[in-house]
Structure formats: C-alpha cells, structure tokens
C-alpha cells in the first residue's frame, strides 16, 4: 500500500502545477454540492490531492526562501548613535589572561604626560578690535 501511495505522490508531483490548479475550482464546487455518491467521494479525494499539491508547493517555496536567506550574508546594521538603543555593553572576555597592573599604570602615566605636553604646546592667540 505504501508503494502505491508513493507512486501516486510521484505521479502528482510530476504533473504541471498550473494545470492541476486550473481543476481546483471545478472540484471545489463539486465537493460543496454533497450528494453522498461514489462520484462525490472520488471528487473529494481529487480535491484533497489538489490541496496537498498546493500545500507542498507553498511549503517548498517557504523553506527554499529560508535557506536562501540563511546563506545570504547579512548587511551590517547602521550604528545607532543613541546610547539607550545600543544595547548592553560587551561583557569582558574572561578567557584572556589578566592584564599586568604595572603595565596599566605605565600606560596611564604616558597618557597623562602626552596630555600635559599637548596643553603646554598650544598657541594662545589674542584678538583685538580693529582701530
């Protein structure tokens, strides 16, 4: 029985979708006009098969679009300059070895020295009104 169902599925899958969907309104109308006959039962099964093909194609399209979207490289989002929208700050990296405090202290001293030098090397301009 399973082999028969798989054979029917392969045959349906091999048919043109547009031709199958052209039959859909006809079988919808027949299934809505219930009379309990063998012809109605056959029409209900055909209608179900048409719906199965339609559902399979929609599912195929959705899954294919998801796969393509997952493979496509994402463009980086522009950085928002509003600090409340930037999200949480990056957590420290606990895998890195601790930094030597002496090196930190020396770096701070060098930074202070540069700032002091920069503040002393500034030119002060005096502006006077024209005579």
Overview of the molecule:
This protein is mostly helical and 131 residues long. The protein is built from four helices and no strands. The mean pLDDT is 81.
Binned, the helix content reads 55-70%
Q: Helix tally?
A: 4
Radius of gyration: 37 Å
Give the low-pLDDT segments. Answer: none
- Estimate what percentage of residues fall within beta strands: under 5%
Key traits:
131 residues, mainly alpha, 63% helix, elongated
Helix-strand blueprint:
Elements: H1 2-14, H2 17-32, H3 38-71, H4 101-120
Helix pairs in contact: 2-3
Q: How is this structure best summarized?
A:
The protein has helices at residues 2-14, 17-32, 38-71, 101-120.
């Amino acid at each position: 029985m399973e082999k028969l169902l798989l054979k029917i599925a392969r045959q349906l899958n091999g048919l043109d979708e547009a031709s199958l969907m052209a039959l859909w309104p006809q079988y919808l109308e027949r299934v809505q006009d219930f009379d309990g006959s063998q012809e109605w039962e056959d029409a209900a099964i055909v209608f179900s098969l048409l719906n199965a093909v339609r559902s399979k194609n929609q599912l195929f399209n959705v899954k294919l679009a998801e796969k393509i979207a997952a493979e496509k490289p994402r463009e980086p989002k522009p950085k928002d300059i509003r600090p409340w929208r930037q999200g949480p700050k990056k957590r420290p990296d606990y895998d890195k070895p601790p930094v030597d405090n002496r090196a930190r202290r020396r770096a701070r001293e060098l930074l202070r020295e540069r700032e002091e030098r920069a503040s002393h090397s500034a030119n002060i301009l005096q502006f006077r009104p024209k005579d």
